[in-house]
Amino acid sequence: MHKALFYLMKKIFPFLFVIFFLFFFALLFFQKSFAATPPNNAKCSANLQSEGSYCGGNYVDNGDPQYLYYCVKNDNPPTPRAWYKCKNGCSPHGDGTGDWCIGEVLCAYTLPKTYCGNHPNQIVGDPAKLHPSNLYNCPSTVETTTSYNYATPDEQSCGSFGCKIVHGDSDVCGCDSSNCAWGCPDSGSNICNRYAAQCNAAKNDCVMTTTLLETNSARCTQFGGAHNTCGSTSCTAPAAPTVSAPSDLSGGASGTPVNKTISWSTVTDAASYTIRIRNRTLHPNQTDYASDCNAQQVTGDYCQTGITGTSKNYNLISGDSYDVTATATNTCGTTPAESASSTTFAITASAQATSTPIPLVVGLDGVGITGDQAHKDSLDPVAHPELVTTPATTALKTIGVKVDVFDADAAATSTPKATGRGTIAYQDSGTNKYLLTGPVTVSPAVAAGTTYKIRVTVDNHLSDLLTNQTIPVADTSPIKITNAEAGDVVGSTNSTSDNHLLPSDYLVIASCANYNIAGKVACPADLLAKSDLNLDGKVDEFDYNLFLREYQSARKDGD
After folding, report:
1. Is it the case that residue 90 has pLDDT exceeding 60?
2. Cα–Cα distance between 325 and 300 in angstroms, integer?
3. Residue 189 has pLDDT above 60, yes or no
4. DSSP of 38-93, one letter per residue?
5. What was the pLDDT predicted at 109?
6. Alpha-carbon distances of 41 from 78, 98, 129, 360, 444, rounded to whole Å
7. Can you say whether residue 247 is alpha, beta or left, with left for phi > 0 and alpha for psi between -120 and 50 degrees?
8. How far is the C-alpha of 203 from the C-alpha of 507, rounded, in Å?
9. Which of the chain's termini has less CB crowding within 10 Å, N or C?
10. pLDDT tier at 351 (50, 70, 90 boundaries)?
């Protein structure tokens, strides 16, 4: 019995040992897998626009703002594939183009390979520290309490040849074995053949071998003129110019265009420049530029090649933000996209005005030295000072006025574009002595410098309709009326003027003059004030004689 049991144990023990061994390591594997949980159980946002690294709170729900998370769009479940606690804080950017740790360069969710600094998503870093044309050696990631699937790489300079992205394999520096520049044509042939290449002994230029790899006429323009002949001739595309935002970022009303100057520095050996302007307000999700300007004609953007100067004017929109990128070109090529100089700025929109002051200078018939409709010439105040009529009191020096503004081609009977009522005051001295001046504010606002049709109606006077009037930018060029025609005292209701000179107006003036002479008070106070056409404080023969001279003119109706 014991021998049989011993024999059975001897046979099954190795099998049980293998089962136990596999179970133990499977348990370790699952423990490690389930342990990979991001801080705060963060989740990639459903609004994620593209794969990449993002700070907590920026396309990462419940994310710690000190952490950087690697998210892939439409992952299910939406758990970040990597996370890392930034040493100096995380720099978020709300445009969905990816974030970085301040002052750090990291390998993000990568295999242990070498990657160029401009390899999308694989290398993520602070632009002040990241070098797109250098090579970064990414080690295997090590999980810690503050890091998962991120690692800090070693950096290698690639020199003047830059870094070459090799999809599906490790990236390499430009002058590295067979990956250096190539493109020699056959002697006496128009067909450009691709040959294998290797670095020379000094590691600063490529030497073509005799191994033919490819025949393709399009290759002749791959690297520019100097690389179209075999040999050790070096040819380098120009460096990027430094592009600057406009010196004046102020704009007009929101949405209106303003002309601004974009400038950039001179680059040695550059034959021309390319400027790309992207409207970030209109296209917030556009993350890169098309290599061909013809493929980038998007509303609100500009792309212009062949510019030989160092500045150019463009119409930009008030209130919008812009990215501007500049590259230089010569016979060897164009500044690599990853090395292009760029700047970001916004055109500040001015506060939207709700009203506009319109300055007026008005001569009232019979007041000061202004004549009348029968004799429009002004009086000579020096030769005939006794004929100068000055308002009798301070109160009489101010009179009400209404201003209506119409579009230049609108009918005067249409609804005004803007309207307002104010006062003008008699001037005893200065440039406008003997005239009445003052601003009248109309609302809503109208554009200064724009041509309109304007109607001005002074109380108790016929209105004047002025065509082709430009709204003054300042008081230096006011709207002028030489002879405002007096006498519109009463209308159909005997209380509101009707913009006509009628016999009924004369009867009121004559009646108020008689009552005034007789010392009676039967003339209503409001009509008595309106009947004082020359503002001398009384209604008498001067007022009704002024009315008769006005009435004899051809114009008896306003406008």
Report:
1. yes
2. 15
3. no
4. -GGG-EE-TT--SSEEEETTSSEET--TTEEEEE-TT-SS---SEEEE-SS-EE--
5. 82
6. 11, 20, 30, 70, 54
7. alpha
8. 110
9. N
10. confident
What are 83's strand-pairing partners? 69, 148
Higher pLDDT, 287 or 247: 247
Position 142 pLDDT exceeds 90: no
Would you say the C-alpha torsion 515, 516, 519, 522 has a positive or negative sign? positive
Which residue has tokens 């680059």? 267
Average pLDDT of the segment spanning 42-46: 92
Helix, strand or coil, per DSSP, at residue 4: helix
Beta-carbon neighbour count of residue 131 at 10 Å?
Answer: 21
The rounded distance, in Å, linking the Cα atoms of 320 and 306 is: 26
Q: How large is the greatest C-alpha to C-alpha distance in the chain, in angstroms?
A: 156
353: its two tokens: 């005005």
Q: What is the pTM of this model?
A: 0.43
Task: Supply 240's token pair.
Answer: 């990027």
The predicted pLDDT at position 112 comes to 86
Q: How far does CA 236 lie from the centroid of its chain? A: 36
Cα–chain-centroid distance for residue 151? 39
- What does pLDDT average to over the chain? 78
What gap in Å lies between CA 543 and CA 523, rounded to an integer?
Answer: 15
Report the alpha-carbon distance of residue 225 to residue 230 in Å, rounded: 11
Distance of CA 116 to the CA centre of its chain: 34
Lowest average pLDDT, out of 285-289, 348-352, 373-377, goes to 285-289
User: What is the rounded distance in angstroms from the CA atom of residue 116 to the CA atom of residue 132?
Assistant: 6
Confidence of residue 415 (pLDDT cuts 50, 70, 90): very high
Question: What is the spatial distance between Cα 444 and Cα 440, in angstroms, rounded to a whole number?
Answer: 13
**473-508 b/e (C-beta count within 10 Å ≥ 16 → b):** eeeeebbbbebbbbbbbbeeeeeebbeebbeebbeb
In sequence order, the β-bridge partners of residue 343 are: 324
What's the CA gap between 276 and 281, in Å, rounded? 15
Q: Which domains does the chain have, with CATH numbers?
A: 39-164 (no CATH), 175-228 (no CATH), 243-350 (2.60.40.10), 356-551 (2.60.40)
What pLDDT shows up at residue 226?
A: 34
Q: pLDDT tier at 558 (50, 70, 90 boundaries)?
A: low
Helix (H, G, I), strand (E, B) or coil at 457: strand
Q: How far apart are CA 403 and CA 321, in angstroms?
A: 39
- The token pair at 459 is 């109380």
Q: Which range in 80-89, 137-146, 369-378 is most confidently predicted, on average pLDDT?
A: 80-89
Please, which residues have CB within 8 angstroms of residue 270's CB and are 6 or more apart in sequence? 238, 241, 328, 329, 330
Length of the chain: 559
Do 404 and 367 touch, CB atoms closer than 8 A?
no
Residue 30: its pLDDT value, please?
Answer: 39
Q: How far apart are CA 440 and CA 420, in angstroms?
A: 7
pLDDT value at position 66? 94
From CA 115, how far away is CA 340, in angstroms rounded?
Answer: 20
Q: Is the pLDDT of residue 354 over 80?
A: yes
d(CA 191, CA 332): 19
